[in-house]
Amino acid sequence: MAGITVAALYRFVSIADPKGLRDAMEQVLDSAGIRGTLLIASEGINGTIAGSAEGIDTALTAIRALPGCDDLLPKFSTAETMPFHRLKVRVKREIVTMGVPGTDPTRIVGTYVAPADWNALIADPSTVVIDTRNAYEVKVGTFAGAVDPHTDSFRDFPDWFRANRTKLLAGKTQVAMFCTGGIRCEKSTAFLKSEGVDAVYHLDGGILKYLEDISADASAWQGECFVFDERVAVGHGLTQGTHDLCRGCRMPVSPQDRTSPLFEEGVQCPACAGTRDAATLAAKAERHRQVTLAARRGEQHVGKRMERDG
Q1: 164 and 171 in contact (C-beta within 8 Å)?
Q2: Is 215 domain-assigned?
Q3: Residue 116 has what pLDDT?
Q4: At CB < 8 A and 24+ separation, what contacts does 163-166 make?
Q5: Are residues 71 and 136 in the same domain?
Q6: Quick check: 128 and 146 in contact, CB under 8 A?
Q7: Is the confidence at residue 106, as pLDDT, over 60?
Q8: What's the angle, vertex CA 207, arms to CA 201 and CA 211, rounded to 5?
Q9: Total tally of structural domains belonging to the chain
């Protein structure tokens, strides 16, 4: 039985004093032994946090006490070991950064589609299916037939859509979009509707909910789903996947990548090989050596430390 509960959550809701809420949440989460990241902005709250079942319950009780958050339904998974090194509670301009002023999912948003109904929607030849995530995430896994925008940042999505709109929508009557947990789709569907696209759908609960609800033999998902913690990726049933994380560039490393002569544990992977000077590589190699020695002593090299903005 896994000992750590992981909760992915978000809610678009008006927050009058993000810094004040940051301070309050930081105290509650730290006291409850929570690690992970919580982002707070005037438009809402977003994050993935981990801890004991009791600690997560305490954290969620505090979050659900916020106006408009009483019915918050996080997506839960488990981990054998703590997937985060520290607690980070941060104030941001946006809880998911698109950079298009006026994009407000509380006013306009696409139609939610339950995981049980998703396969039929994306199999419809009148549907164009768009993966709203970044290229390194898509590489780990995606839905069969989905369009990959090849973006490096979610900020790139609006320009990509505007540049490719005519080609994307040619012969199509509806758009279906998906992301990891649902939050990027809230923004991207709101954006498409503001651009005049009427029939816009998104996967309710994101890929994580789909992998939780849909069995592997009934699934249209291919590969694993990248997650932003030390588990790196998960598969059906939200079990931990086969990918590792490159300590040189923080990109996912597949089992095949690990067999490459360009891969060096704790230093570099095929994606970042040749991009750093010798001094940087030596420093990363020394850090990996220290991490390995600490692990042999049963210690954690990276200590628990809260990070905050301003």
Answers
A1: no
A2: yes
A3: 98
A4: 165/195
A5: no
A6: no
A7: yes
A8: 125
A9: 3
In-domain check, residue 302: no
- What is the predicted pLDDT for the residue at 302? 58
- Tell whether 116 and 74 lie within a shared domain: no
Residue 310's pLDDT band, with cuts at 50, 70 and 90, is very low
Domain end marker among 66, 95, 124: 95
Q: Tokens 């607690």, residue?
A: 87
pLDDT digits 0-9 by tens, 112-165:
999 999 999 999 999 999 999 999 999 999 999 999 999 999 999 999 999 999
User: What DSSP letter does each residue of the chain carry, written as one string?
Assistant: ---EEEEEEEEE---S-HHHHHHHHHHHHHHTT-EEEEEEETTEEEEEEEE-HHHHHHHHHHHHTSTT-TT--PEEEEESS-S-SSEEEEE-S-SS----TT--TTT---EEE-HHHHHHHHHSTTEEEEE-S-HHHHHHEEETT-B----SSGGGHHHHHHHHHHHHHTT-SEEEEE-SSSHHHHHHHHHHHHTT---EEEETTHHHHHHHHS-GGG--EEE-EE-SSTT-EE-GGG-B-S-EE-TTT--EE-HHHHTSTT-BTTTB-TTTTTSS-HHHHHHHHHHHHHHHHHHHTT--SS----EE--
Measured in residues, the chain has a length of 310
Q: Known catalytic residues?
A: 179
Q: What is the pLDDT of residue 291?
A: 81
Residue in the block written with tokens 């438009």: 43
d(CA 10, CA 83): 19
Tokens matching residue 245: 């994380």
- Whole-number mean pLDDT of the chain? 93
Query: Which candidate, 139, 116, 142, places its Cα nearest to that of 129?
Result: 142
> What is the domain range of residue 167?
111-223
